Amino acid sequence: MPYPTDRERDRPWVIRTYAGHSSARKSNELYRRNLAKGQTGLSVAFDLPTQTGYDPDDELAKGEVGKVGVPVSHIGDMRALFDGIPMAEANTSMTINAPAMYLLALYVAVADEHEAPRATLAGTTQNDIVKEYLSRGTYVFPPAPSMRLITDMVAWSVAEIPKWNPINICSYHLQEAGATPAQELAYALSTAIAVLDSVRDSGQVPAEKFPDVVARISFFVNAGLRFVEEMCKMRALGQLWDEITEQRYGVEDPKKRRLRYGVQVNSLGLTEAQPENNVQRIVLEMLAVTLSKDARARAIQLPAWNEALGLPRPWDQQWALRMQQVLAYETDLLEYEDLFTGSVVVEAKVAELVEGARAEIDRVQEMGGAVAAVESGYMKGQLVSSLSERRRLMESGEHVVVGVNKFDTTEPSPLQAEGAAAIETVDPATEAAAVEAIRAWRADRDAAVVESALNALRDAAKTDTNLMDASIACAKAGVTTGEWAGVLREVFGEFRAPTGVSAAVSGGEAAVEIAEVRERVKQAGQDIGSRLRMLVGKPGLDGHSNGAEQVAVRARDVGFEVIYQGIRLTPAQIVSAAVQEGVHVVGLSILSGSHLEVVPAVVEGLRAAGADDVPVIVGGIIPPEDAAVLKERGVAAVFTPKDYKLTEMMDEIVTLVRGAHGV
């Protein structure tokens, strides 16, 4: 049978890879290579100092520069990042939240230098700060000022860069933080309602233009392995969005009510054990957001098979890119109308999800909306409890993870053969170069122009003036990302979000196993002379707190007194808290790759404070060779994602504490 070349095909979604590391120059080289390979959109990963509004020479940036993304500290970096890339033709997604306004300002300023008309600029700033309080942790300011920044960006963008999506309402990290599909839908839509209400009530957009605001709202979602449920979730999201925008906001044009969303499939669900299994996981997750034409993603970016091990290499990213291209160009998927219309199973599942999400949206609205539900700790507590239940199912074996808790016998992997560099590593000299470069940048600027721009930003922030124009002026004056955020920290203050640990419902393995370890904890406390206390800390800027929160909940459940102060702590702050609280063990969680810099600083700080009898344990994405280095430098134990049985982990910790006290 001849190949059906005459059949009309839909245009493929925007094909992206999430990329960036080390420096703007190296990331630019990577972007150009990826575009040459057929990628149709850019997705910029920023490093953690940039994401949290710090310059590379800030104390909190130590060990984090260029690790999980590219450092962009000023307009010079943004120029280098887009050198040779036609910004009038590019479709650029920027994963940035608290400093989103400034990164957009830098992007617009460089586009002006390229003489790219602002009306041609297309892309997205993630800019969903609300979900940062619940999951990923790269927030800076309190909720009200954060919502003001979002509102200003949305209003300005709709008027000045009408092709740009000024916000991606982001349910992606909610799923990783434990959300059920109904919670994921409800909390994302509650955030969307909060944003739209804020823009409407700000008076910055005329009523007749408000449908244009709705039309530029996009979503960024997660797709897990339950791909039938995930596909139904996307159909439910489209139905709910259409309903909300028509009934609550009176948008009559169906095109402006249409759900627009992009996808990164589930990265935290990838496994360190038998990582080759991640290839089929990624493909199956991609199907969830492509099979249904009526709920198909507008843009997709896929992780690489080895992201659970560390930073992917260009070859790994190419493999992920080719997965999309094979589906889009080799299969017949894009030749058909929706495959699931009329399916009794799909319609029933969609109805179930819609009903569950509506009920949870109503609960959040009764509390005063998404911001109030963040400030009260309600949503965070719900997510921590849901994740605890998910872990219980995995630890008990009711939820099978192939290669981890079942079918774990394996052959040596040629992908990880001895001598092969299985992940990309960032040269330690990168940070030193970035520190030197930022200091040289500051020295070469016109100080008076910079000070004038910062003063104008400060003055505007004290009023209800839209801050985008002041931010673009700062960008063109050479202000750094840390300086921009520093001025707003002065005016708005900072914020520490509720951790959700105290509100979490217990979950875990069989009660008998928890009871056995609880008895060991109790006995150790009696032998030592005081109840065992554990400090759980997250040093540096890594805000992925899910693992730390689950460790804190399980430690509490087995009888430890737990001190957990949340994210973004310096080693000195962790040491001070450990000494002040008289803890018996310090547990550090870190996923950003900065473990070799920040963990030894905690160990050395405890020794200097006379607390060298306090064992330090570490959990995170830590390669075996790095684990060996940490142990040589005084770390008592290293746990990685394959160590998923938290109660067994607690048992090991009790043994370490007893040994440290000679009992």
TrEMBL record:
Stretches assigned to the B12-binding domain: 531-660
Cofactor requirement: adenosylcob(III)alamin
Keywords, in A-Z order: Cobalamin, Cobalt, Isomerase, Metal-binding
Ion transport recorded as keyword: no
An MF annotation (GO) of this entry: methylmalonyl-CoA mutase activity
PROSITE patterns cross-referenced by the UniProt entry: B12_BINDING (PS51332)
InterPro entries named among the record's database cross-references: Acid_CoA_mut_C, Cbl-dep_enz_cat, Cobalamin-bd, Cobalamin-bd_sf, MeMalonylCoA_mutase_a/b_cat, MMCoA_mutase_a_cat
Pfam families for this protein: B12-binding, MM_CoA_mutase
Highest rank taxon of the organism: Bacteria
Gene3D superfamilies registered for this protein in UniProt: Cobalamin-binding domain, Methylmalonyl-CoA mutase
CDD domains registered for this protein in UniProt: MM_CoA_mut_B12_BD
Subunit and interaction comment: Heterodimer of an alpha and a beta chain.
Similarity comment text for this entry: Belongs to the methylmalonyl-CoA mutase family.
PANTHER family in alphabetical order: COENZYME B12-DEPENDENT MUTASE, METHYLMALONYL-COA MUTASE, MITOCHONDRIAL-RELATED
Name of the protein in its database record: Protein meaA
Species: Pseudonocardia broussonetiae
